[in-house]
Design goal:
Number of strands: 0
Radius of gyration: 26 Å
Order of helices and strands: HHHHHHHHHHHHH
Largest sheet: none
Strand content: under 5%
Shape: flat
Number of helices: 13
Helix content: 55-70%
Structural class: mainly alpha
């Protein structure tokens, strides 16, 4: 049966009405997330602070006439001035350069830990969630065993073992954090993939003969990038704090390389007489941790579809 419609019931849109129509360009998921992130002023300020810290840590020691290792005992414990912005330590070393070197080490530890977290966590969690069944049970019980013991205890034990064999250094911190920091990421990726693998686009990929490896790395994990990026951003300050704690108790980098934790530890004996030796490295650590946490919160709000208004 044909529906007979009266043409008089319809009329073309007038030019004035066309101009009043609100036409919004279509946006992809990432474009929408970036737009929402830019609207979060706190997150954007935190991002600019982090960029400024990275640039300062790279350029600052290069343009300074002082280095982090040369001793000048005649100028020990000088107060902050135009010559030494943050003063000097007990051996006369410029504290400004040493704080920047320590910040550079902390940032490198956070980035390397996040990279290892991303690679191992995504692969492990992706395989566990995709295959399920007995494979998932065995792999997740291993994660539960690792997760049941505090991460700091793992890292301390690994650092002690590595120190006895190879000497404590930055590479040992990378190894210790990389071995134990991926379990949280694996759990998140596994939970996301358990949901996504039942979607229609996976069934369509299987129907055209896609292999399991392609399903995991080309279809499933890319669709989990929102929670993955949020987790990575939140794991960086945790890794930075762990490195600072290890350096504070003497299991961090070797002297004379500076770390924010070792600088705080070195200043404890005389911080009442020279409070600036503790203030500046502690302030830099607080600013860096706060910026990462605030940026991570903003990134979570931007990437979470449930936060859309």
């Amino acid at each position: 049966m044909e529906a007979k419609l009266d043409k008089n019931c319809f009329e073309p849109l007038k030019t004035e009405e066309e101009k009043n129509e609100i036409v919004r360009p279509s946006e992809t998921y990432w474009q929408d997330a970036w737009r929402r992130l830019k609207e979060n002023k706190v997150a954007m300020v935190s991002l600019f602070v982090l960029i400024a810290l990275v640039l300062l840590c790279i350029v600052g020691p290069m343009v300074s006439k002082y280095d982090y290792y040369t001793n000048d005992l005649a100028n020990g414990y000088l107060k902050p001035s135009k010559e030494h912005y943050f003063g000097t330590d007990n051996l006369g070393r410029d504290l400004y350069v040493r704080v920047l070197i320590g910040t550079r080490i902390s940032l490198s530890v956070g980035i390397v830990a996040a990279a290892i977290n991303f690679v191992i966590g995504c692969i492990y969690g992706g395989i566990s969630g995709f295959y399920g069944g007995l494979t998932d049970n065995i792999m997740m019980r291993i994660v539960d065993i690792i997760y049941s013991i505090p991460t700091e205890l793992y890292v301390i034990l690994l650092m002690v073992v590595l120190k006895d064999k190879t000497g404590s250094g930055l590479l040992n911190i990378y190894i210790a954090l990389g071995i134990s920091y991926w379990v949280g990421m694996a759990r998140i990726v596994r939970g996301q993939i358990l949901t996504l693998k039942e979607q229609e686009f996976i069934l369509a990929a299987k129907s055209v003969g896609a292999k399991n490896s392609r399903l995991i790395f080309k279809h499933l994990i890319p669709n989990c990038m929102g929670p993955i990026i949020i987790t990575l951003t939140m794991s960086i300050p945790s890794a930075i704090f762990t490195e600072s704690f290890l350096s504070f108790i003497g299991l961090g980098v070797n002297a004379p390389i500076a770390s924010l934790g070792s600088l705080c530890s070195d200043s404890l004996q005389y911080y009442r007489q020279y409070p600036y030796t503790l203030f500046f490295p502690a302030l830099m650590l607080c600013i860096m941790m706060l910026a990462f946490n605030l940026f991570g919160d903003g990134l979570r709000d931007a990437l979470d579809p449930k936060m859309r208004k």
